[in-house]
Design goal:
- 6 copies of one chain form a homohexamer.
- In chain A, the strands form 2 sheets. A 5-stranded mixed beta sheet of chain A has the order 1-2-3-5-4. In chain A, strands 7-6-8-9 form a 4-stranded antiparallel beta sheet, with helices on both faces.
- The termini of chain A are far apart.
- In chain A, helix 1 crosses helix 2 and helix 2 crosses helix 4.
- Chain A has 242 residues and is an alpha+beta fold.
- The first copy, chain A, has 4 helices and 9 strands.
- Chains in contact: A-B, A-C, B-D, C-E, D-F, E-F.
Amino acid sequence: MRSSDRKNTDMRAIKITADINKFAMGSALIELGDTKVHCTASVAFTVPRFLRHSNPAQGWLTAEYAMLPSATPTRTKRERPQVGGRSQEIQRLIGRSLRGVIDLHKCPDLTITVDCDVIQADGGTRTAAINGAYVALRMATDKLYRSGRIDSDPIHHKVAAISVGIKDGEYLCDLDYEEDSNIDLDMNVVMTDDGGILEVQGTAENRSFNKEQLAGIIDIAAASIRNIYQCQEQALANLRND
Amino acid sequence: MRSSDRKNTDMRAIKITADINKFAMGSALIELGDTKVHCTASVAFTVPRFLRHSNPAQGWLTAEYAMLPSATPTRTKRERPQVGGRSQEIQRLIGRSLRGVIDLHKCPDLTITVDCDVIQADGGTRTAAINGAYVALRMATDKLYRSGRIDSDPIHHKVAAISVGIKDGEYLCDLDYEEDSNIDLDMNVVMTDDGGILEVQGTAENRSFNKEQLAGIIDIAAASIRNIYQCQEQALANLRND
Amino acid sequence: MRSSDRKNTDMRAIKITADINKFAMGSALIELGDTKVHCTASVAFTVPRFLRHSNPAQGWLTAEYAMLPSATPTRTKRERPQVGGRSQEIQRLIGRSLRGVIDLHKCPDLTITVDCDVIQADGGTRTAAINGAYVALRMATDKLYRSGRIDSDPIHHKVAAISVGIKDGEYLCDLDYEEDSNIDLDMNVVMTDDGGILEVQGTAENRSFNKEQLAGIIDIAAASIRNIYQCQEQALANLRND
Amino acid sequence: MRSSDRKNTDMRAIKITADINKFAMGSALIELGDTKVHCTASVAFTVPRFLRHSNPAQGWLTAEYAMLPSATPTRTKRERPQVGGRSQEIQRLIGRSLRGVIDLHKCPDLTITVDCDVIQADGGTRTAAINGAYVALRMATDKLYRSGRIDSDPIHHKVAAISVGIKDGEYLCDLDYEEDSNIDLDMNVVMTDDGGILEVQGTAENRSFNKEQLAGIIDIAAASIRNIYQCQEQALANLRND
Amino acid sequence: MRSSDRKNTDMRAIKITADINKFAMGSALIELGDTKVHCTASVAFTVPRFLRHSNPAQGWLTAEYAMLPSATPTRTKRERPQVGGRSQEIQRLIGRSLRGVIDLHKCPDLTITVDCDVIQADGGTRTAAINGAYVALRMATDKLYRSGRIDSDPIHHKVAAISVGIKDGEYLCDLDYEEDSNIDLDMNVVMTDDGGILEVQGTAENRSFNKEQLAGIIDIAAASIRNIYQCQEQALANLRND
Amino acid sequence: MRSSDRKNTDMRAIKITADINKFAMGSALIELGDTKVHCTASVAFTVPRFLRHSNPAQGWLTAEYAMLPSATPTRTKRERPQVGGRSQEIQRLIGRSLRGVIDLHKCPDLTITVDCDVIQADGGTRTAAINGAYVALRMATDKLYRSGRIDSDPIHHKVAAISVGIKDGEYLCDLDYEEDSNIDLDMNVVMTDDGGILEVQGTAENRSFNKEQLAGIIDIAAASIRNIYQCQEQALANLRND
């Protein structure tokens, strides 16, 4: 049995609050259990050099991921002079996941930077970051569209993510830090709202796994991800009603 | 007249919430108008090399200051590969101010790292950081004392800080970002609760000032700082009552 | 139809030559089509700080991945001052894959560094690197065992990897650079010789995929990986016969 | 009593030699007791990016501060890869002080870089740097004006600086290294020749101070600074007579 | 007597294989005893900023030198964040030597980057690099000329290099790693095929030397370098016959 | 004819002033024409890690070379984050030259750091640095010996250096910056006072040279270097007489 009376296939309590930043075009604080990630989407009206002369014109979206030093049980040093390997891996995943649901040709001449800053880390920061970042991005593109800076809605799907693990042959959904430390297999699944998979990343920690388990994981992830869409929509709806 | 019906000698609304982090030994979120700083005090049971063999033994306290990229009206790049000059100046000020009220000989063999991460920046981030950091530090030393890791309370004074400016000959207390951009003189004052001054830093932006103005600034700062002590005490009292 | 008369489920010609370096304890050059990776395993008789006092004692294995500047169609700058995000991602994958088949408790007090330097890059460098690195590692642990530096064979499984993609609904095994540039889904699969999966990493480039496709990919990967084991074994056998 | 028969309100012997560099547009060597700083003002006919399109056009002035490794009793490492926090703080102070007396709108399209390299450090290097840098700057702007590169004299005031400390309740002017190590309060004061204050920076090291002491410090600083103006003028006069 | 029955004035077995890289415009693998260097010449159709507006127009040639970590008896760390002093010295030598035999005014608007990556290091890597790099460069300029990207052959001489040492008064040609470790004088000589010297670099390790010895070294170097030209020509001839 | 009525085989006016720094154990300012280099030798009572356990014990000597930004006709940026290739090459040369005349086994457990900071650069900075550094080193070892920190004089030879060039077939001794910019061959020669050569470094800029010219250069260098020894001795003698 997991701690906190959670069933194996339950994800933790999730709460997304949109528009938590005065300056960024879109923003959301996501709380997934004790994990908290501050997500913002900032827009600059320029594109990186490698897209300057692309034809047809297209915009760009990039993500950065970092932790506050006090986000972890033992204080983590700020990543200087350079982003660490783990953070690079995560911010590349966030960027790919969001680019998977936005048509950047509909955002010519602008760059959206999504910042995911982990305020508190209790496992699942990369999936929480994707879930919160989608809300921040959605807010930002809505504003761009309403203000006429872009001509059509560039987002063609919702996106959300969840981790599913296997421990002693049992599936465990949405691993917290302690569970993650003792898991046999840790898989992150990113899906769109038509049920398609955008990304899977799974690593066997102690024992290898098989394709039947892989399929089982996808099913569990799909169920949780449907809940996350609702939570994302609610956060955005609250915002529109303000 | 300032925006928001604030009188020239009024500081902005201030709110400090203690214990906002699951992992750090002490923590506080300070809101000073629209400025928000996440302050934590983390403790490691070791000291830097230059204090390894100090006699008598003493601990150390150091501060780091950073901004989330989305804290500013235009997104600020993360400071890599190195901390920028302004951040260095600020984190050195925070460290000196806190070291001014703690007896590190009463904290042998431990290092307290205070992290001040600006969530939103609307002027006065360095003074807000000192005010919030004091609460985080106080929480941390209380826990160290209660748990027997240190033998006596090492903090001998409260410390708080405020900025006071001069514009067209008028004093302005607690400058926000817009006021700060057009000021003639910007002074930061750090004081202890016996009325002593720990640090003054003042820079004439457009025209020089004189010693009578310097004295006037100290008076205004002292009045605001008394309010800040109350706010700090309230945050700590709420915590003890929980 | 693919170029070079390759069937969709065929991998490219693979050739592994062991013992190609005078100094490293283990070494192999792997050629996978036009991709060439120089793999070595070097041993140092010390462990990183975080394992100094581990109980029971264990050794460590780490991997580094880099490209010669001339490995790519357009010259690639050397990664300075820091390893790029993509290289970090790859070298972390190589390290995890090899650690997945070695019992580091059987290698106390030593660190194995696997270097994978891409001499020529035509797609699939990360899977080629894993396949060649296994041979270099196997050579190194054999020498350690024969010389009495370790007491038992620490490697409990063979490991190999292959990429499988999906293009217009068709599976394509072992993508070369050109195929990789236009693929809908690119998946890397790392497996052990008991048929277990150690790692999957898949990214939808243009359209999302489903769990049936995921299962299909595993089947194709498994078939190719069985061929790779034979090639690895042949390289090691040639060596022993010299 | 201080060492060297200096009265508490006396500054150390000061000597400024102008035009000590063949290449820089302005230069001065300042000796303040045993402290020696090599100051130069170099001019480039371009402005930093953030001023490229300023309207009205304006130039820029920036300062750099560094120490020769052998300037200090124990050899100091060169600051690489980055400028240290203390040097950043000092060079920012030098830059602000000089910008406080020059009208950069009278220097369109050019950047003046002031380099202050400490040859020998015996306390007071930041104030010595400001005093010497003013002479180098004055030389450089005189040359720019005489050669017609600028249309009018951009310097509207003289500037000079001095440190004043408090030890056991007594004021001490122009602290040397040994005095600085045991001081209760160390204040740096930068003033213009109309008696105005440009910058104050004061830090209580052991005990806090009050506003009466602050006023006392300003008086002592003002007296010394009047001497420094004479020394600066003499250095420039010698130059013109050559 | 040297190891391996080599006479003192003999260089080691040398083998150059041209065209060993699919992507670079020119390439060669040079083996000099157990030393192996992978040399490529890549061409970009742009020039560095400092040559942008040169009149008459000219191209540029630059060299980079690095070692694979496993090239040395003890694994060498990759040079990050920066190129080490020794590598800088060597790559500057390679660049100067090649620029000494090419007329860059005949290569306007293009930059040739020569990469010398040491696969295995057993002494003499810098001279091996020059010898192999010449072949790669020759291949690249031939292709540029044949394809009409340049109007005439820019290479006006062949260039080759060899080391000669002195040990106990005896000359030793082409030092391997072990010999190099105990030498009294180590000299590198770069010559063109008209017998002229392009560069000498000699360092006394234990005892100083005189000008007669310097002359003797030049004679021995000249003889070996004539052999190297033949080897370079053979590699290029094989290529043309393919 | 050279500027300034200098004959081709004349070096420029040379002046060495010893003991110009209050803190370093040895120091000298060398002026060679308009080139000025500030040389110091600092001593630390420790050795680098690679010599910690050397048997027999030995000390270490290392050199650093840098330019003040204003040392050159156009201001040179400070070398950050890293030492540039040219400076590395020069500081390695200075270190080797000095290590060539000192027996480090006579200096166990200490490290001498020689800093050569170019105050003004008009050609020949590397040879000036060696000449001045020898005086600083000599002062430092004399003090170490007199104070009993070392048991015998570790310096067994004097060392000095000079550049000699060839222009249109004529030898030119001690090139200044302008001459150096148009030279056919630039050679630096480092010699000991027994007439031995410690190091030669020569680069053909426009046309190659031959061994007869090499011999001619050595003769000219030797004559100038004899003058430099006298100048070094005079600087040290003045010191002893003070």
